[in-house]
Design goal:
Elements lengths: L2 H36 L9 H10 L8 H4 L17
Helix pairs in contact: 1-2
Length: about 90
């Protein structure tokens, strides 16, 4: 491969990588706006693009009220039926 051919190959490869990156950002942005508009972050994702965006960004849900159960202030009974120490 000559010097010009290698330069063109590098330019085409970098354009391909940039296009893929921009495409991913656009799809995640559209899916995020859709989730905000539908108020659906507390439940299942409404479509495949939203599921993909959640997977890519690491957003998961455990149920509609998972944020109320999380944290050190969870006051459910332990295995022996006693309230935890506060």
């Amino acid at each position: 491969m000559g010097g010009i051919d290698a330069g063109v190959a590098i330019l085409l490869l970098s354009a391909l990588v940039a296009g893929i990156t921009i495409g991913i950002v656009v799809i995640v942005s559209i899916a995020s706006r859709r989730e905000d508009r539908l108020y659906s972050l507390g439940g299942k994702a409404p479509d495949a693009s939203c599921r993909g965006a959640r997977w890519l960004t690491g957003v998961t849900t455990r149920g509609p009220r998972a944020w109320e159960d999380a944290g050190p202030h969870h006051y459910s009974e332990d295995l022996h039926g006693q309230e935890p120490h506060r």
